[in-house]
Amino acid sequence: MEKLAQVASHARDDARRAIVDAAEKLFREIGFQKTTIGDIAQGLRMSSANVYRFFASKAEINEAVARRLLAEIKMEVAGIARRPASASQRLRACIVAIDDANAQRFLSDRKCHELVETAFNENWIIVREYAQAIDKSLSEIIFEGNRDGEFHVIDCNLAVVLVRTACAQFYHPRMAVECTENAEPTIHQLVDFCLVVLERGL
Amino acid sequence: MEKLAQVASHARDDARRAIVDAAEKLFREIGFQKTTIGDIAQGLRMSSANVYRFFASKAEINEAVARRLLAEIKMEVAGIARRPASASQRLRACIVAIDDANAQRFLSDRKCHELVETAFNENWIIVREYAQAIDKSLSEIIFEGNRDGEFHVIDCNLAVVLVRTACAQFYHPRMAVECTENAEPTIHQLVDFCLVVLERGL
Hints:
The first copy, chain A, has 202 residues and is mostly helical. In chain A, 79% of the residues lie in helices and 0% in strands. Chain A has helices at 2-30, 37-43, 48-54, 58-81, 87-108, 110-121, 125-147, 156-166, 168-171, 173-178, 187-200. The interface between A and B is medium-sized, with 21 and 21 residues.
């Protein structure tokens, strides 16, 4: 009986994944706003009613695609946090990775960028989960930098919030786009600014 | 002849001011998007054609009202920059004044806030002029802080850009609104963060 439940659960996961795959492809082509449940169902040769068995609404599918796009950045940042490098090098690499991901998506995948921007603008739950995951990686780096005498921070959690806020221009997909025409500060100048505080103490 | 030109110029300024007054009042009541040149003309008991003698388009009137709203903040910040207080106190007071002005406008004058937000979103020329004026005030403070040994900044202009970027959450009318639900960082925590850098050197 348990086995049967497991098989059913796997089948459900596969179906959800196929729906998200199909949706992501359509979002990329025509944008998430123009894509309907009917379009997604048609791409999978199933009925709209069948799609609704796995997602209660189009909004849930939007969320699932956006979550997947953000998961890539989240994973990359988590990987950087665990690299064998100094805390300041890892912190810099994380912020640069986030900025690169935003810039890359904006340049080569404008329609998916719109989805992520909307998610940020409307503060979807998946965005808050993403922000928490990034905070966790930065927090690990700052904690270890402190432990190893590289940083001198009294309140690690506050330091994470401050670094994230100070770097919002490179964090936030919309700000990132708005600020591309500003020559200064560069991302490295802004990271240097934050590192002065972390290294000298806060 | 010169005298006549002067009188004409004054009359022109008065007429423009009356139009901006009337527009601002209507913007406050029904919002800038819904206000037409016809509404503004009617409020002044003049024809739309007459309004067009002074402003080429509705967009120009929008700009004039937004410029006036931002001028208040600009003046206040310029005043703070010249106060007899330490550089760090003046810097803090400037950032707090900008944040207060945004919060105040958002709370008590939502429709004018929308106009300013739109101006920022669309990067109107008046917003760039405003940003330059604020930069100038901050630059004066940082330059004097440096001169008096309170700050240790090598590149004052870069320091201004970095402080402005780090504090974007409190600078930018839209960000300010989005971030009101975040408990941290407070504006004082963020200013402290910036002051560490200015005081210890960049």
